[in-house]
Write a structure and sequence with these properties.
36% helix, cell wall biogenesis/degradation, transmembrane helix, transmembrane, membrane, EC 4.2.2.29
């Protein structure tokens, strides 16, 4: 089924040109802009009244941010899932990853501080409004997907694309590989399994026993790997036309897509050179 796929130990599909996920940010017109999220307050300063969830944050990061914003002990938000009664699709099996929609949320309602479960419910309700409307639902159906699968693809796009302009092409690589019976081989799914964010994925990493190991397992991961924004969702249901199977961000602003394994190997070699000599990659 994928005998023409290069050996998995030979080359990896993707390595992004960003070292870490944005730690703090604000959603403005569909893009994340880095701003302080929560900061230490001096005497007399007001407590924050909103919580900003950036595009691409994982559920664990969001739980931590909710705990800090509401001055709760670490782990409180995650524990509140049991009583939050989140309106998640059946495929999610109670896991809200992918449905904690990135946006700005109020920390008070009616003059009273909100609760972790109410805040998480607000995020999921916002995601359902965004995802279950006609454009997304119809787009998913047009691509022979259900909405949950579209969100999962969008989460990969969110993690892998170096820029919003690249999102449609990354989505097309995902579709092309799925249609050809090729493993996705996305480093972002390995990073999710290992709860990290890095450009360096080793051969040993690609052999880990995890349902999120897209080197060893076919198809999509079992859940989204982060919480995608609207641009990534649009890309997931409207991938850019093309025959690409590989991509790599050789240097900031230079992501190369190709259907040729040999060309991809040359691009990856250039990426490796730039990583060893960052001064020459500007």
């Amino acid at each position: 089924m994928y005998r023409n796929t290069p050996p998995r130990s030979t080359i990896r599909l993707t390595r992004r040109g960003r070292l870490v996920l944005i730690a703090t940010g604000a959603v403005v017109a569909g893009t994340a802009v880095a701003v302080p999220l929560l900061s230490l307050r001096g005497e007399g300063e007001r407590e924050p009244t909103t919580l900003v969830i950036p595009e691409g944050w994982r559920a664990g990061q969001i739980y931590d941010a909710v705990d800090k914003a509401l001055a709760q002990p670490p782990g409180t938000a995650k524990k509140s899932l049991a009583k939050a009664n989140l309106k998640l699709p059946n495929d999610a099996e109670g896991n809200p990853e992918g449905y904690l929609f990135p946006a700005t949320y109020p920390l008070e309602r009616g003059g009273r501080k909100t609760t972790p479960e109410a805040l998480l419910s607000f995020m999921v309700d916002t995601a359902n409004k965004k995802f279950n409307g006609a454009p997304i639902a119809a787009g998913a159906q047009r691509n022979a997907l259900n909405v949950y699968q579209a969100v999962t693809i969008a989460s990969i796009v969110q993690a892998e694309a170096a820029t919003e302009a690249d999102m449609g092409k990354v989505a097309r690589v995902v579709f092309n590989r799925l249609e050809r019976g090729m493993p996705l081989q996305m480093d972002s799914t390995i990073n999710y399994a290992l709860n990290r964010s890095t450009l360096r994925t080793t051969g040993a990493d690609t052999k880990i026993d995890s349902p999120y190991n897209s080197y060893q397992r076919m198809g999509l991961p079992p859940t989204p790997i982060d919480n995608p924004g609207e641009a990534a969702m649009r890309a997931a249901i409207n991938p850019t036309p093309g025959d690409w199977l590989y991509f790599v961000t050789v240097k900031p602003g230079d992501t190369r897509f190709t259907n040729s394994f040999e060309e991809h190997r040359r691009n990856v070699a250039e990426f490796d050179k730039n990583q060893r000599n960052p001064a020459t990659a500007g």
